[in-house]
Design brief:
It is a single chain. By secondary structure, the protein is mainly beta. The protein has three helices and twelve strands. Strands 1, 2, 3, 9, 10, 11 and 12 form a seven-stranded mixed β-sheet that branches. A hairpin with a 5-residue loop joins strand 7 and strand 8. The chain is globular and about 50 Å long. The N and C termini lie far apart (37 Å).
Length: 178
Amino acid sequence: MTDDETKDETRDGAAETSGAAASEDARGVERRELCVLRAGRRTFAVHAEEVEAIGEDLRPAPLPFAPHTVLGVVALRGRARTLIDPSALADDAPAPRAADDDAEGFAVVALRGDEQLALAASTVEPSVEVAARDIAPADASEPFALGVVRFGEVAATLLDPSKLFEAAMRGTERRRKR
């Protein structure tokens, strides 16, 4: 079975049902819908409108000489995507790399955009809606984050998709065309 055939059960609803980037409740409070994922010991979130699809139990094809933040490449919805481990970005314990064919795959959150990125997760939670005012500024030590959001007992790092690739490649040199 290829990666395209492996439980490639995409949940398209995340992006299509999010509607506008923000909405207001009856009191005029701006609300944001977030896709929540768990990776390593941490919880992360991305704005729901940034999510193209979610795949389950996907195993990345390794990339030689990739930094520890890049787990490899996965095929999802007909596109090859660079799979980033957000827990490794946050200098947390990185996700285990698949060493053999019996290893479990990852839940994968494919992001919109030209970089064709995806986030590896142990689980993807149902989306949550939060008040925009509940998103606190990001810590300067995490330049890939937009902020921190709390909902219930959980604090999640809100990721900035436009900065993920640069943060994942930090400390490595990209090949230049000759």
